[in-house]
Amino acid sequence: MATHKPLSHLCFIFLFFLHFFSGNGEIRLNYYSQSCPNAEEIVKQQVISLYNEHGNTAVSWIRTLFHDCMVKSCDASILLETIHGIQSEKTSSRNVGMRNFKYINKIKDALEASCPMTVSCADIIALAARDGVVMLGGPRIDMKTGRKDSKGSHAAEIDSFIPNHNDTTLFVLSRFQSVGIDVEGTVALLGAHSVGRVHCLNIVDRLYPTVDPTLDPSYAEYLKRRCPHQQPDPNAVEYARNDLQTPMILDNMYYRNIMNNKGLLVVDQQLVSNPATSPFVEKMAADNSYFHDQFSKALLTLSENNPVSEEEGEVRRDCRFVNHN
């Protein structure tokens, strides 16, 4: 048996390196260590600067990662504008309220000044989300890089991939399962609702014509003050917060709130009543470190969803448009 060990060991090493350095959408830690050594630091400094100027950008980075990676691939398709036969994903009703895309361009400009045509827009989304989580008091996540950008939009397929705010828990779990995230991870990722705001369009069904009986009455009154119209203007800045105690800290207050019938969305409140998810809600409500650990794992899995290969993708010059050579 001893004579076979070295051969097996060599085969393992060969297969490892073949897998690690293949061009089929592989990503890895420190991908830009040679081609753009300062890439991750540039993104980090831009995220910090933008946070200090516009605090809500940190929330936007996390949401942008979710809305990009859930639809087919982490490929920056969500950043494409409607032009040259491309229908922007931003026009989808599932992406109502998405903001701060212009700041992605600011980060891209800083990277282009240092390393032209090197860092993908998909990696900017991933790294900005990683650094945004830290700015919100969340955990530091070691995130791989090397993603390529898509050459087209997935606008026609968004409804099949991104759960709606009033979908059943079973459907939401199935959507996350399709990208490799289990029940525990799904409950943790929904904890991102601990920060930021939700457009009134996604809330009014719980308030009008009658208040959802699962809503805490005092919280319902707050929501009605924030969302006074049964048919809000989708272009109006009408929002409500899920977490009134620590609205800009990524913590387990979200779970404490939904256990007290203060869930902003239907999907939030259903986590408590569903027997598959409620045990995890209780554990995360009781232990912030546990929530952070599970959130890190789930966000990492999401960020690695189906990377585009070198042959199929590109590094866009401008995140808003595909390259035209």
From TrEMBL:
It is found in: Secreted. GO terms for molecular function: heme binding; lactoperoxidase activity; metal ion binding. Its cofactor is Ca(2+); heme b. Its EC number is 1.11.1.7. GO terms for cellular component: extracellular region. Keywords: Biological rhythms, Calcium, Disulfide bond, Glycoprotein, Heme, Hydrogen peroxide, Iron, Metal-binding, Oxidoreductase, Peroxidase, Secreted, Signal. It comes from the Eukaryota. Heme b binds at residue 193. GO terms for biological process: hydrogen peroxide catabolic process; response to oxidative stress; rhythmic process. Disulfide bonds join 36-115, 69-74, 121-319, 200-227. Residues 1-25 form the signal peptide. The active site is at residue 67. InterPro entries: Haem_peroxidase, Haem_peroxidase_sf, Peroxidase_pln, Secretory_peroxidase. It is an enzyme of class 1 (oxidoreductase). Residues 26-323 form the Plant heme peroxidase family profile domain. Substrate binds at residue 163. It catalyses: 2 a phenolic donor + H2O2 = 2 a phenolic radical donor + 2 H2O. Binds 2 calcium ions per subunit. Binds 1 heme b (iron(II)-protoporphyrin IX) group per subunit. Ca(2+) 1 binds at residues 68, 71, 75, 77, 89. The record marks 63 as: Transition state stabilizer. Ca(2+) 2 binds at residues 243, 246, 251. Gene3D superfamilies: 1.10.520.10, Peroxidase, domain 2. Removal of H(2)O(2), oxidation of toxic reductants, biosynthesis and degradation of lignin, suberization, auxin catabolism, response to environmental stresses such as wounding, pathogen attack and oxidative stress. These functions might be dependent on each isozyme/isoform in each plant tissue. Belongs to the peroxidase family. Classical plant (class III) peroxidase subfamily. This is Peroxidase.
